[in-house]
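pinging the channel bc i need a second pair of eyes. not urgent but kinda urgent?? the chain im working w is below, pasted from the shared doc
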Amino acid sequence: MDYLERFLEFGGMKKDIICLIISALALIVSGFELFSLPFDAAWIAIILCGVPIILEAIHGLVTAFDIKADVLVSMALIAAVIVGEDFAAGEVAFIMQLGALLEDLTVARARAGIEKLVHLTPRTARILKEDGSEVVVEAEKAQVNDRIRVLPGETVPVDGVILSGSTSINQAVMTGESLPVDKHPGDEVFSGTVNQFGAFDMRALKVGEDSSLQRMIRLVQSADASKAKIVGLADRWATWIVVIALTAAILCWFVTGEVLRSVTILVVFCPCALVLATPTAIMAAIGNATRHRFLVREGDALERLATVSKVAFDKTGTVTFGTPSVTSVKSFVQELGEDDILRLAATVEQRSEHPLGKAVVSAWRKKGAGRSADLEQDLTDFVMTPGMGVSATIHGQQISAGNRELVESLGLSLSEEARALARDHLDKGRSVIWLCTQTAVAGLIALADTMRPDAPAIMQSLKEAGVSPVLVTGDHASAAKNIAAQAGMQDVYPDCLPEDKLNYIAASEQKGAPVCMIGDGINDAPALKRARVGIAMGGVGSDIAIDAADIVLVNDDIRMLPHLFALSKRTMCTIKANLTFSMALNFVAIILAMTAVLNPVTGALVHNAGSIFVVLNSFLLLNWKSAHVRALPDTVASPDTVASPGAQGA
């Protein structure tokens, strides 16, 4: 939706609010006869609130023979006006439009941030000609098999394969991986990902609309069309309500011959409580969710959340903190202890921009006060080798830190003990940094994306709430299975691209297992949009993921997730209780109308008592607390008090 449409939508809602205020004042004047007018003041409410209902009912009947709640309301309005019960007509019209406004305020759909995703599309491509010259063209003009050069800091313009050069690529936009991925000749790269360190040449394989980023944009655009839409309960039951109301009114008229009784039946049968039942409960539940740091962006999200049976978590930034931290340090030489290994690695990595290098430096600085000064040493000849690691001279001794390729490039060999230890760390999804001197591999540092400490308890609470947690991530199988095992999640789907997550959600829906997706990255946007309910991490999440989600977790504290699921079920129970009471009251009012105990005005007042009960009962949800919340400490951790991943350092 463009800005003009948004302005018109806001203007339309503002107009509805003004009309309701004027109508309420008119009904007060009419009901209490505050002063005389040439006409009954209730006609103001009939025109402002009733005419739009009648026009909408006629439009639905004529264009699609669509019988909704407004059909019965229109009949009651017209009948009340014919018999001269203007106040009853205006009152019913006002209640119905008030319910519609509440629904607009709480069920209005948020607009996906497609324009932000489009802005990620690379603008240019650096094409290499046969004579060795470079020409910069618009990215969409790149052709298959073009040789393209990508410099450090540039966005990869198309999908392709590296021909020469080594680098590290930030693939978070596609896979959600928290760490850059080292790339060498022969490796694939994807459009929209960011080249962090080294320059490389690539051959274009998929360009334009066939590129990975463009496919993801189309996925987000199409996913919303596949999401099931919730139909209002009043409209869902409207056909039966209309048939029953008309039958009762006609029979009463036929038996008694009194048209006033029939009009009263139509008035008390108006589905005001049905219209108010859902939006008032949802509005109160949204207020409750907001107090527990959930921003509900789609009004019917809580209604949908009550139906899900699986909750799919992305790993990075959701189950984990999304930043690496040192988990283990091992020395392979007698003259250096583990602290020495970490200190030397931090010293040589202090000029590195790589996330793993920064994590090593952070871990050393957190070892204790005064340790930061230990890094200010005689460091010279710093060299960063893209895709391998870093080297420098410290007090005349060459020290290197990097991956297995760096070790091999230095001509050093690994002992069987070192190989076995590295395999164990890699199998657990950790990254490994080797610390080397000129003559030997001195030590190993293992790093991992740290799991949130409350994750296991949260997963157990979700299971108790009746939903099954599932890990759906772009990370490799070893890292995904390790985190899932720690968190107590049985179902794991690793190596997922955006379309893989989308396919998983669609397959689950087909099997009758609706999915709630929880993620934070751009790569999660299609899945967040397609899922029955999408929940985005508001603190660490991308703007695009947030725009695609139905609910945003403002401070990334996932401890409140079980409460949110319990709240959704409680909301549906409240809605059903509202409906049961109001419909029972309506049937009692119908009997009283048939026996002439009620006239149209008193009938409208009695039947609207059901609406008042609905509102009061709904707003009890504002302060409702689930058992999960009652079991937590009084002070819920704020973003500043959540445990830092760095606390679990070396």
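so The chain has a mean pLDDT of 78. and The longest helix spans residues 561-594. — does that match what u expected or am i reading it wrong
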